[in-house]
Sequence to fold (458 residues):
Amino acid sequence: MRSLLLRLYGAFTTVVQPLVRRKLRRRAVAEPGYGVAVEERFGYYDDATTGEGQCWVHAVSLGETRAAAILIGELRRQYPGIPILLTHGTATGREEGAKLLQPGDTQVWQPWDMPGAVQRFLDRFQPRIGVLMETEVWPEMAAACAERRIPLVLANARLNEKSLAAAERLGWLARPAYSALAAVWAQTEADAHRLVSLGAKVAGIYGNLKFDASPDARQLAAAVTLRERLPRPMVVLASSRDGEERMLLDVLRRFGATSPVPPEQGAIRSIAKRVHDVQWMIVPRHPQRFDEVAALIESEGFAVARRSAAGEPSDAEIWLGDSLGEMALYYGLADVALLGGSFEPLGGQNLIEPAACGCPVIMGPSTFNFAEAAQLSLAAGASLRVENMEQAVTAALKLVENPERRAAMAEAALAFSSSNRGAAERTAVAVLAIAQAADPVVTEAAPLEDSKAEPTLD
Fold:
């Protein structure tokens, strides 16, 4: 029987439904993807949207969808033909997820966490198992799945200290939700301890799925070709977040990047020449900010060339990587990457991706989203940590001028990436075992097919 508090939560999420609809309408103005199939978010589907007994995988946004792609690839390898129900919460996640679909799969929005929408979702699809990626645990959905005896699991699970504190403040909701999960497979031991403190049944510490992805080989090959035409070494601020682009531009301007550089006049001018001898590139994390960042670069006095317009290298002071799914190309072009999300208190973006491309990384102080990976990367010699953007630019310049150290870091990055693989296979085995135990119709996994291609990072 449901607690009074959970029923009150359900009543609240139902009452605020009009506000959710209004937010989606506003978001769709900037990102049209949010205006697609809106009624799915409230449990209403057209007749063509079918599928029962599938393996449901929920990947809220772009990063989780890329992790889900790795797991789905391994599930298909172990159980060829397994039907997938894929859900998302963001437009970028849904767009990326569409690339994963095969005949027999279904893709819809994750339902808003109110009783009516959740019940309609489960009535329509009746999944054999639900796999939530990384962090997405909703009280109503967890309770409804438990009532229907649909095993709901959390894969590639992570929980940082900030999120734990927030969950503890809402413990009356969070603890029953985490306790209702059939199993949780954590990325790290620290994540496992935090999840257990919320009542989660941690069944294993499997590492990060993202280590099992391989960079797009075609993009890396294209990067090799483009690098031959680059007049200067390149440093990329990768997956940058709001505020970080201005930080970089401020440092470059103070270092003299927008001023003509006369012949060398001692140490006072040397930093300006060193900055001019590097090609700088910015790749924003979110596509809706591409135009905003381009305008910012120009307003700060820099000439900008956009990947979407120029395509090929140009003489512009700043290149803007305004394309989706080309991070392997950007990392392949870069001599050094500055890790976006780590120079603001945002926890850092994926540092496993540049490591797999053999790209040395300089990270700022905030990497709590990838805390263990950051520590392992530093210990392996694949990355450096600095306290601010000025130190990052200075460190990048030193690396650019030291090819021997840069090559050693690139080699260490590749070794760091390859030594941490295996989470995908372990997780897929565990998912299929739980699905089979819950529903005897799920047969044992078919023999592995070694000819299957590895999932890619992009």
